[in-house]
Amino acid sequence: MKKMFPATSNTDSQVYNFDSEENSQKWKRLFLSSLQKVLKQVHPTLAAKDDALEYVESLILRLLAMLCARPAPHTVQDVEERVQRTFPNPIDRWAIGDAQAAIEKGRKKSPLVLPAEKAHPLLRDVLQTKIDYQVTLYIVAVLEYISADILKLAGNYVKNIRHIEVTQQDIRVAMCADKVLMDMFQQDEDGEMSGVVEDTNLDTSITYDELVKDLIQEKKTYIRELNMIIKVFRDKLQQIPSLQDSGHRELEIIFSNITEIYDFSVNFLGSLEDTMEVTEENESPVIGICFEELAEGAEFDVYGKYASDVLRSECAETLMEVVSRPDVSDALTSAGHGFKEAVKYYLPKLLLVPVYHVFTYFKDIEMLLSNTESEEGRESLEQVKGLLWPLQSQLERNIQNSAYAPYLKRKIGEINSRHRRQSRQQTLLKMKELQRSIDGWEGKVITQCCNEFVLEGDLLKLGATGKKLTERHVFLFDGLIVLCKSNNRRSSVTGQIGEYRFKEKFLMRMVEILDREDTEEVKHSFEIRPRDQPSVVLLAKSAEEKNTWMAALVMLNTRSMLERILDSILLDEEKQHPLRLPDPSVYQFAIQDSESNIIIEEKENSGTPLIKGATLPKLVERLTYHMYADPMFVRTFLTTYRSFCTPMELLELLIQRFDIPEPVLPPVSEEETQEVKNQQTSIHREILKRFRKEYSQPVQFRVLNVLRHWVDYHFYDFERDKTLLDNLTCFLEKVKGKSMRKWVESITKIIQRRCNEEQREITFSLNRSPPSPKWHIKLDEKDWEAILPINSGGTSTTPDLVRPLLMLHPIEIARQLTLLEFELYRAVKPSELVGTPWTKEDKEKRSPNLLKLIYHTNYVTRWFMRCIVDSDNFEERVAVMMRVVEIMVMFHDLNNFSGIFEVSSALGSAAVHRLEHTKMEVRKRLPPGQLKVFEEASELSENHCKKYQEKLRSINPPCVPFFGMYLTNILLIEEGNPDFLPRAAEGLINFSKRRKVAEITGEIQQYQNQPYCLEVEQRIRHFLETLQPFETENENEIANYLYNRSKEIEPKSCKKPPSKDRKWPNNYLKSPGIKPRNKGMVPNPLPAIFQQSERGPKLVEGADGDDTPHLLTPPTPTTPCTPPPPQSHPPHTAVDNAIFAPVEIGTGNVLTGANEFRGIISGFPSNFLPPQAPPPPPASPQALPPPLPPRVRKREPSIGDTSPKVKQAPDAPELPPRDVSPPPIPPRTATLPRMHSSGGLQHNPTHHHHAPVGHSLHSISNLHHPHTHHHYTHHHRPTLSSLLAPPPPPQQYQLDPPPHRRTNSVDLSSPTPLARRHTNGPQTGLPGSSINDTANDSSDHPPTPPPRLSYRQTFSFPYDQHHS
After folding, report:
1. Where is the composition biased (Basic residues) (predicted)?
2. How many CB atoms within 10 Å of residue 276?
3. Which residues are bridge partners to 483 per DSSP?
4. Got the DSSP string for 1128-1153?
5. Taking a C-beta distance cutoff of 8 angstroms, is the pair 887, 813 a contact?
6. Closest Cα partner for 1324 from 1203, 1242, 1211?
7. How wide is the angle at C-alpha 335 spanned by C-alphas 331 and 339, nearest 5°?
8. What's the pLDDT band for 1069 if we cut at 50, 70, 90?
9. Per-residue pLDDT for 330 more than 50?
10. Tag placement on the chain: N or C end, fewer CB within 10 Å?
């Protein structure tokens, strides 16, 4: 045993004191950032806390103190001799090898991560002499090797306990189990080592997904054990000449078909990982098919042959005979300290691992069966269980008849008695119980220095004279061996005492295990030789018992050495057989990464890198990357790729990516000897094997996975282009290979299902039925005929639109509108949004569902407006407006934000807003509760819809979001960012722009996944679907009609409204009433977008009388950016929350930088909507503008911001809203014409151009038309005081637009408010400004529409009182 270096650096032999205050400041944190990089090299997926890295730094500084101790080294040879003299074997050889490699590569090509340049001047101070830089390189290389060894060991431990971050505690525990590192740093029993914190709360429950993850982790550990058998033991024995001469016959008897076991295990693990990769985030993997394929192919039978061979006595006898040969014994002894004992005692037990490991498959199948919810998976697992039953019976018979029966039965019992997640806690509890059973225990708690209990039993201790034998009960842990004596006294006056009495203990890392030959006097003995205590000889009762103890002891004594040998072998194989890629000249996806073809965004502590920009081939390469899978990138790419390539181009690139040519290898020279030829041929074979395993197969599998995702979530691409589908089908038919055909068949099944799929109604079976429809006055057949258009079953050319508003229950109108609008909302696909197709000429083809939503929203708003102005009688008009307000309150209760904005636009329009007498009467009659809810709903559009954003993130779904906000954000991203990266190589697609758009579409889809628990009333639905308030599509005629009717029912400056005859009886006008249900509902914060959760809506019962949840809803279109529906949430305490499901939706990564436009609106641009909204009333040309409001210097929150109210704790008191907006401006009744010029429009400090003008939805052929003013065009919306109060004093504006330059791009990442950087002087037409109705009435002619803007011209979003 070599003498190790001291535990501390403060010794008399050292001149330099690393712990002094002055010196410690020089070295502190010098290596910290470099150690983080070292960790990324050995464990790329793990992170480390600062305390862990600081602890590693302290360890390597102690190592540095030893290397620089007196006599101080001056040359590389001096340092190397010190390493050989003080480092344990075999770590000394590997550290020296790394250091020599660093010196050979020199200073410029040094592969070292630790900063040798910074350490060099400090080392001169330490050694107090000038040293060569190569000495520094050598020392730093040694330090880096040791630090990498420590971090790798700690990382393996962290992965085993399924954590993702390394802590100082993890490093201490991992080192405690490693003899080599413990020897190096001299950690004694009373030192710094501490064990794992115990968790006595055993969680016996485990989910299906946890089982699958544990299964994969277990198979990885098992494959490493197989590598230990094959690469460390078998390959070493194969190198011995005498065994080569015999043709490896003995090795075949010893190891049987272990390589077939290894190949089977690798294939099984690969199948599991492939299944996990193709499984969606919101689904559970169906891994029964992985078992089924292998079971049907009888591939599990390799275990039957192996167990039959290894359990025969011939296997153990042959191994003992081989080890006893002199040449073999010498070769094993020279292989390393303790290697011969490992082959003799540890290898026989290691060979039994596959025999009992196969029983884990049987246990896994049972546990998966008991936890799976998939009927397909259950059937598959049941079939596998039947197929494997004969093998299980055969193995049990072989074990029963073998000499290893007791040991194997104990191992199998451990497998059956607990699952993996309990094993650690149970081990800690068992060690704690064992310590309590030992009376007189001395020293630390066992769990603080040990991680594993290994073995216990009765042995005999040989006395010092060699004659006296005493009985000892021995406990063996991974860090301790404890000798006890049976305690005859079981109780005393002080209470019950332990079963055993403590005698002595030894640290396993401080002892040497020696085998003793049998003599006539002493048989079956072995020796424990501590470094600083007398030796102890222990005797077993039989040879089998001795082998069991020796196997355990030798395993603990040599495990760290064997693990490092295996790591070294695997690393050498990787260097010897590097991964070669195809020739880039024939395979464009093998071109090396460079700044000319790909730019990666630097993200700290992130897993897979984010692509900022790349060429199309590079994007396809990363889409199917061989090193890792990136499901998020696949979703984003398939959602947005149409903005930079066609579907046919993408399919051709994926087919090219799949057809991978093999790398060209140098030919074997004919002049070489046959031995050299064989060696080169073997190397080529291994290179090709690695290429197929690590490059070709992963790439081809991921190509098929992308295709599967494509046809499953974006099949509309193939529906629109039959040639695309034919090309895909032709390609799939040509794919060969058993493993690939499995995934091809899954794609084919999806295609068949999609082709044969009909639009059908989906019924969500819930525990309770939905609330029954509510009726106010039952409509008979004549009533329905009177309100429906002629082409929809009506009898009148002028349908009565007021009748349904008065006769139907306002609650039911709100419910049916909410159901219809939710279905329109959920039908919008991401392809209708990416690239702003709704602004293009073919918008009717590319965005049909979006246009349906826009048209419907227009019609509902105009219906409300016409119903109000068509009511001549004052009482009837008040009743109609009351109904509209009640519907808005119900929209608020149903989380229908689209409906709220519809009503707000109707009440804020010029024709309705001027009806001051009607509004004042409605305000008087509204109950306080409804007034409060109405006021809250009306405020959602204020301050750039800030409150709406907060509200959307605080409610629980289902809901109908306001779609105009999403369109504005997408438009800003599309127009404010170039399609290709500026200031970069030509042709680099700006993929970060597409990612931002995909985040918005992802939020849209996240709210599409949770349906309402409401029932469709077919008659009301038919009326709402055929609703068309005006026969004409001419916006001027609509505007004229509404405004003229408004002046008729309430003339200008009238003191009271004119008296008109009643049309409806009192029972029609009397409202049935509503009950706002927002009281007591505490909003919950929402998780982030793309959060993993379980699939499917889970609704809970409500308490709306006897109403119970049930739902009939059309299917939701799904795409790869469709995030999983949120997991269920405990129901609200409110007893009337029946229609909502207890689910939380992600907050959504809404635009941040783009939303800092002060002039942004929260809705559709006016020209994106059907040209049916009326123009504003006329403005007086002599009107003078009032002074502009002061500019708000304080940055307003962006759309993606959340208020302090949302960020605070759920149970914290509600904070008052912070009003950062300027004082409200009077409603405007005249919209000033927007001037158009080459320079754009004039703007004020809070109103900005930020999007191009799209085509009107009125006519595809007519690209130049009057702007449509729609209720989605919001800015500063009138508050309750302006909606239901008389207009303020008259104010007018004068238009005088100076030209300005338009900024072509918008920096969405800039923290500076864009409003300040895009302001060009004073501006007219302030959003939210208005002119008094008195001024409007100065002219009796209808208003003229504003001038048209040419296509792609800059524009702003003025506030329109007709459709604000």
Report:
1. 1264-1278
2. 16
3. 474, 504
4. B-PPPS-TT-TT--SB--------SS
5. yes
6. 1242
7. 100
8. confident
9. yes
10. N
473 phi/psi in degrees, rounded to 5: -100, 120
Considering only CA atoms, which of 1337, 1017, 997 is closest in space to residue 1149? 997
Q: Are strands 525-530 and 511-515 parallel, antiparallel or unpaired?
A: antiparallel
Report the alpha-carbon distance of residue 589 to residue 593 in Å, rounded. Answer: 10
Which two three-digit tokens encode residue 1121?
A: 């950016």
DSSP-derived letter for residue 344 is I
Structure tokens at 588: 């464009």
Residue 82's pLDDT band, with cuts at 50, 70 and 90, is confident
- Contact partners, residue 488, CB within 8 Å, separation at least 6: none
Query: In the chain, count of helices (H) and strands (E)?
Result: 53, 17
**Integer angstrom CA distances of residue 778 from 719, 774, 1016, 1106:** 45, 10, 17, 21
Show Cβ contacts of residue 749 under 8 Å, excluding neighbours closer than 6 positions.
none
Q: How confident is the model at residue 823 (pLDDT cuts 50, 70, 90)?
A: very high
Q: Quick one: tokens of 556?
A: 């603990």
Distances in whole angstroms, Cα of residue 1055 to Cα of each of 126, 911, 915, 1234: 98, 18, 12, 35
Residue among 959, 854, 969, 952 nearest 902 (CA):
854
Q: Choose among 154, 189, 156: nearest CA to 511.
A: 189
Residue with tokens 């689910």: 1143
Contacts of residue 736, defined as CB under 8 A and 6 or more positions apart, other chains included, come to: none
Task: Read off the pLDDT of residues 715-732 as tens digits, 9 standing for 90 and up.
Answer: 989 988 899 999 999 999
Q: How far apart are CA 1345 and CA 1174, in angstroms?
A: 8
Q: Which two tokens stand for residue 159?
A: 């992965």
How far apart are the C-alpha atoms of 1085 and 953, rounded to whole Å? Answer: 7
* 698: its two tokens: 């992963």
Instruction: Report whether pLDDT(210) > 50.
Output: yes
DSSP string, 1169-1202: S-TTSPPPPP--TTPPPPPPPPP--SPPPPTT--
Please state whether beta strands 762-764 and 495-496 pair in parallel, antiparallel, or not at all (unpaired): unpaired
User: What's the rounded mean pLDDT across residues 1251-1277?
Assistant: 36
* 920/923 Cα distance (integer angstroms): 5
- Choose among 1175, 1188, 1186, 1184: nearest CA to 1230: 1175
* Residue 291 confidence (pLDDT) above 50: yes
Give 1288: exposed, middle or buried? Use CB within 10 Å, 0-12, 13-18, 19+.
middle
Here the tokens at position 220 are: 């990885």
User: In 140-214, at which residue ranges do the beta strands (DSSP E only) sit?
Assistant: 165-166
Query: CA-to-CA distance for 562 and 1250, rounded, in angstroms?
Result: 66
* Rounded distance between C-alpha atoms, residue 759 and residue 743, angstroms: 26
Tell me the C-alpha distance between 1180 and 1228, whole Å: 12
Asked if the model's pLDDT at residue 954 lies above 60, the reply is: yes
Burial of 872 from C-beta contacts in 10 A (0-12 / 13-18 / 19+): middle
DSSP at 1252: B
Contact 852, 784 (CB under 8 A): no
Mean confidence (pLDDT) of the chain: 75
> Is residue 954 within 8 Å of 1083, Cβ to Cβ?
yes
Pairing verdict, β 500-507 and 438-439: parallel
Backbone angles phi, psi at 455, to 5 degrees: -160, 155
Q: What is the dihedral of CA 546, 551, 554, 556, to 10 degrees?
A: -120
Residue 479 has phi, psi (to 5 degrees) of: -115, -10
Contact in structure between 198 and 432 (CB atoms under 8 Å):
yes
For residue 1126, which of 1159, 1152, 1154, 1094 has the smallest C-alpha distance? 1094
β-bridge partners, 600:
611
Max CA pair span of the chain: 129
Residue 554 sits at φ, ψ, to 5 deg, of: -65, -40
